[in-house]
UniProtKB/TrEMBL annotation:
The chain crosses the membrane at residues 134-150, 156-179, 191-210, 230-248, 255-277, 283-304, 325-342. It comes from the Bacteria. InterPro entries: DUF389. Residues 88-99 have a biased composition (Basic and acidic residues). Signal peptide: none annotated. This is Hydrophobic protein (TIGR00341 family).
């Protein structure tokens, strides 16, 4: 069972309100908490140890409690273990004894095993912000991919896939759409655009300078888009989003390899630089398919995982943004399938 610690720093005058709120929900959420004074003499620190599945529900209640003041701070961090143990089996047995009503209450909470919305946002934001390091990662991974595709070396190509600098902005865009977050949306689009331009320019330059007298099989395989590629992109995208929401970064490596964004983009640039225009179009189509399917699968999976904004007006804005984005990605996917059907004929 994954554990989290929620630390709440609050003024001393709010001690009773915070303690009462935590005590009221303690039996439902199954957490332990305690308070201690801070060195400044004016603030208190409450620490709550709980199951990761309950984190978002408790955070939302705390945010609603403190919405009227700016004198608080809530910090969330992981805990390896706690003694005495939090016993989820006892809680499940009590829920079974209480019958269906307890089961319904559990369903209304965050009992789906994922990390909280705020943790998820922080994790995604780290891979979405445009920085010098991101640009360097794009250039280096593109160079690795160029060498791997030109030599037809699968191991080198997988190395470029694992670096996967374009995956983060796409996940950020899907999350921003789900939450209706305009700032994160534009930051994701900006970062993704810079990454695509850098990768494409570098690979096109390599194709122009070196040419492709004898294209490798690995390179040629990226010039064709099949319907199985769309299915693979949708499934891999959904799996990647679930992995992100569960907070299991090691599992994301396999998704990076399965959902290859970088190799088809590199192939498109190489083919274009070498004046192989039909092949460049096919590789560009594969890259577009992966981006479209990743974002569409991401929005759907985030919604299925119960990722929602907290306030009602943010929920309304997010609902509108999600519907618009889902419509756009669906139309683009339909157009893509139409192009593929025209190519096969």
């Amino acid at each position: 069972m994954a554990l989290r610690v929620i630390e709440i720093v609050t003024p001393r005058e709010d001690k009773e309100d915070v303690a009462k709120s935590l005590e009221e929900r303690q039996s439902d959420e199954g957490y332990v908490f305690w308070g201690s004074p801070l060195d400044d003499g004016e603030s208190l620190s409450f620490r709550v140890v709980l199951d990761v599945r309950e984190t978002e529900d408790v955070l939302d209640k705390m945010e609603n409690l403190f919405a009227w003041t700016d004198k608080y701070r809530i910090v969330v961090y992981p805990a390896e273990a706690t003694l005495p143990r939090l016993d989820p089996l006892t809680k499940e047995e009590e829920a079974e004894k209480n019958g269906d009503q307890a089961g319904e209450e559990e369903d209304n909470g965050n009992g789906n095993g994922r990390i909280s919305r705020e943790e998820l946002y922080a994790d995604v934001l780290d891979t979405t912000l445009l920085s010098r390091h991101y640009a360097m990662l794009v250039l280096f991974s593109s160079l690795v991919g160029i060498i791997g595709l030109m030599r037809g070396n699968v191991a080198i190509i997988i190395g470029a896939m694992v670096l996967a600098p374009l995956l983060g902005p796409n996940v950020g865009l899907a999350l921003a759409t789900t939450l209706g977050d305009r700032k994160l949306t534009w930051e994701s689009i900006k970062t993704l655009t810079v990454g695509v331009v850098l990768c494409f320019a570098l690979s096109a330059g390599a194709g122009l300078l070196l040419g492709l007298p004898d294209p490798s099989e690995e390179l040629m395989s990226r010039s064709v888009t099949e319907f199985s590629d769309i299915i693979l992109a949708m499934v891999s995208g959904a799996a990647g989003i679930i992995t992100v929401t569960l907070g299991v970064p090691t599992s994301l490596v396999g998704v990076m390899v399965a959902l290859s964004l970088l190799p088809p983009l590199i192939a498109c640039g190489l083919f274009l630089g070498a004046s192989m225009f039909p092949e460049a179009g096919g590789a560009g189509l594969l890259f577009a398919a992966n981006v479209i399917c990743l974002n569409l699968a991401g929005v759907v999976t985030f919604l299925a995982q119960g990722i929602r904004p907290l306030s009602w007006y943010e929920k309304e804005r997010a609902k509108k943004a999600t519907l618009q984005a889902a419509l756009i990605w669906t139309v683009l996917l339909a157009a893509l399938v139409g192009l593929m059907l025209l190519q096969t004929r």
